[in-house]
């Protein structure tokens, strides 16, 4: 079979026992014919017709009706979900071997034409339902890409100078990773990271962007002509597009609140598996979620007070109290996004590592983090504070982008999960627990948090748990708290030194350097307000 196919492909001509045009009466049109492949496509000659049947590889559909009989249809237009065919012929082969060879040649020919069309650095898009559509609700992704399709939201990210400045520094300080290399920008947005990669000497950058922002990216890139010839913008999801070549390096900004919100890390990992050469680089390569218990009496009272409305027994003559409990729990199910004073942390932080170069996409569906802290002060613990950083593991310079409290503020701020039942601890007491994140199809996570304070003093050796408090939160529905960091030291019972970064407990042994921060002006307040909406 292989040999006869090879021979046929070199001299692609098939004598046909009979051909009949489906648009004519069968008895009048059936006659012997020839199928010929040439540079213009496939022509099926019909002895009784002067005009051959011309077939375009992109639109032809070939169906086998019996071992020697096939139907060849040419697609016309689409009406609704139905495809209409503009013309068709039935082909009778002389034997089943020739029939099989013809089918193989047509398949091969279609494949080659598709590959050639993708070769012009344009990329192609598959039309089948993608992995993205399988796991994400369409209403969520529609809103998500609508949001990112607007220039004001891209501007907001560009105006986060800590973020964009760190990317710029990380790329340009590591030119050796980019010079002469093929780069894929995963979720290119305005195209800014593609432009940075081109500035650093990339041979070619494929900027893949699913939202309407792809058009603006084209415009922005075209307006920078010295870089534009080395950048191709491809509109589509990284899960769907085909690229004409493999990438030596991926660049992306896929981080959401708590690192994982938006579930774009999964797209980054899919892009790695689809496009990156073995041992290719990823910018960033690693992310860490940092966590520490905090005390914040003001925040707790603020949230609890929101539900006071429902304690009215005479609201226009109506008793609202039956809904107080539900409203109270509802407010505590919202993680709080704001910039807080690191002195609110009551124990050294710990972190959980996500290695983008190694993690499997499915491992991001459920993230389970055991917690263990030693309280530095005696106080009420109101919950768990979280932030993240990512590492640009360049060959020349390693650089961290951090969103830690006390560091220059980014548009991600920090995140706090507040317990509706605070727990009490003494200095030196162990706090254990679990942070369990479960992905949902609205591009976010349900957060399950449990914190426990172990027995202290007499009886501790029995290891009994004194108090446990749990909460369930939706990362998709945060409470954006628009306050500035406040001086809490006097008002609240805690130590005065920040407890972050340098005292991390390493729960996974990783040889990672500590954050190095680009000092840039922090966000202006308008950008801050707008940026909070990034958590779509
Ligand atoms: C956080 S923005 C970053 C934009 C730009 N890279 C930057 O740094 O300014 C993420 C971008 O990725 C795009 N995006 C998210 N998921 C995607 C996917 N699966 N395929 C293609 N683009 C995606 C979004 O539309 C958005 O523009």
TrEMBL record:
Residue ranges constituting the Protein arginine N-methyltransferase domain according to the UniProt record: 289-441
Keywords noted in UniProt: Chromatin regulator, Cytoplasm, Methyltransferase, Nucleus, S-adenosyl-L-methionine, Transcription, Transcription regulation, Transferase
Domain of life the protein comes from: Eukaryota
A Gene Ontology molecular function term of the record: histone H3R2 methyltransferase activity
Keyword Methyltransferase listed: yes
SUPFAM superfamilies, per the entry: S-adenosyl-L-methionine-dependent methyltransferases
Gene Ontology BP terms: chromatin remodeling; methylation; regulation of DNA-templated transcription; regulation of flower development; vegetative to reproductive phase transition of meristem
Gene encoding the protein: LOC100807771
EC nos: 2.1.1.319
InterPro entries (alphabetical): Arg_MeTrfase (IPR025799), CARM1-like_PH (IPR057622), PRMT_dom (IPR055135), SAM-dependent_MTases_sf (IPR029063)
Transmembrane region(s): none
Residues covered by the Probable histone-arginine methyltransferase CARM1-like N-terminal PH domain: 12-111
Name by which UniProt lists this protein: type I protein arginine methyltransferase
EC top class, as a word: transferase
Location within or outside the cell: Cytoplasm; Nucleus
PANTHER family registered for this protein in UniProt: HISTONE-ARGININE METHYLTRANSFERASE CARMER-RELATED (PTHR11006:SF10), PROTEIN ARGININE N-METHYLTRANSFERASE (PTHR11006)
GO cellular component, one term: nucleus
The organism of origin for this protein: Glycine max
A Pfam family assignment: PRMT_C
């Amino acid at each position: 079979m292989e040999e006869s196919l090879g021979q046929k492909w070199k001299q692609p001509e098939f004598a046909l026992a009979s051909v009949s045009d489906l648009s004519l009466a069968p008895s009048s049109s059936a006659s012997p014919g020839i199928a010929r492949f040439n540079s213009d496509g496939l022509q099926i000659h019909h002895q009784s017709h002067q005009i051959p049947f011309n077939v375009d590889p992109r639109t032809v559909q070939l169906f086998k009706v019996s071992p020697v009989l096939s139907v060849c249809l040419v697609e016309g237009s689409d009406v609704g979900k139905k495809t209409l065919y503009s013309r068709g012929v039935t082909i009778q082969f002389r034997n089943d071997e020739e029939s099989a060879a013809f089918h193989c040649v047509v398949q091969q020919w279609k494949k080659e034409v598709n590959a050639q069309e993708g070769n012009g650095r344009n990329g192609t898009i598959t039309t089948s339902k993608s992995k993205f559509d399988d796991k994400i609700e369409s209403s969520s992704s529609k809103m998500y890409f609508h949001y990112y399709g607007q220039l004001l939201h891209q501007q907001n990210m560009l105006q986060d100078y800590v973020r964009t400045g760190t990317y710029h520094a990380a790329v340009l300080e590591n030119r050796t990773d980019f010079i002469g290399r093929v780069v894929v920008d995963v979720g290119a947005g305005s195209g800014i990271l593609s432009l940075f990669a081109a500035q650093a000497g990339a041979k070619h950058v494929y900027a893949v962007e699913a939202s309407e922002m792809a058009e603006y990216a084209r415009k922005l890139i075209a307006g920078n002509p010295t870089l534009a010839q080395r950048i191709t913008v491809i509109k589509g999801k990284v899960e769907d597009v085909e690229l004409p070549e493999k990438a030596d390096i991926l660049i992306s900004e896929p981080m959401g609140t708590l690192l994982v919100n938006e579930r774009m890390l999964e797209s980054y990992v899919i892009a790695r598996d689809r496009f990156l050469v073995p041992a290719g680089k990823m910018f960033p390569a690693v992310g860490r979620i940092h966590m520490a218990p905090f005390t914040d009496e003001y925040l707790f009272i603020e949230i609890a007070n929101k539900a006071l409305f429902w304690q009215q027994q005479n609201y226009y003559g109506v008793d609202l109290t039956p809904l107080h409990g539900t409203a109270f729990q509802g407010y505590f199910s919202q993680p709080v996004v704001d910039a807080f004073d690191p002195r609110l942390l009551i124990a050294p932080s710990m972190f959980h590592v996500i290695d983008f170069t190694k993690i499997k996409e499915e491992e991001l569906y459920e993230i389970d983090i055991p917690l263990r802290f030693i309280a530095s002060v005696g106080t009420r613990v109101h919950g768990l504070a979280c932030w993240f950083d990512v590492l640009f593991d360049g060959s020349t310079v390693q650089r961290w982008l951090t969103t830690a409290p006390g560091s220059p503020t980014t548009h991600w701020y920090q995140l706090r999960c507040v317990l509706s039942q605070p727990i009490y601890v003494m200095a030196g007491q162990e706090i254990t627990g679990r942070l369990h994140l479960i992905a949902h199809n609205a591009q976010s996570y349900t957060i399950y948090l449990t914190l426990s304070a172990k027995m202290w003093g007499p009886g501790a050796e029995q290891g009994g748990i004194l108090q446990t408090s749990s909460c369930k939160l939706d990362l998709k529905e945060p409470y954006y708290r628009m306050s500035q960091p406040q001086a809490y030291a006097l008002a609240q019972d805690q130590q005065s030194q920040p407890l972050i970064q340098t005292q991390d407990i390493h729960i996974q042994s990783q040889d990672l350097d500590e954050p190095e921060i680009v000092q840039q002006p922090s966000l202006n307040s308008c950008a801050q307000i707008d940026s909070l909406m990034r958590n779509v």
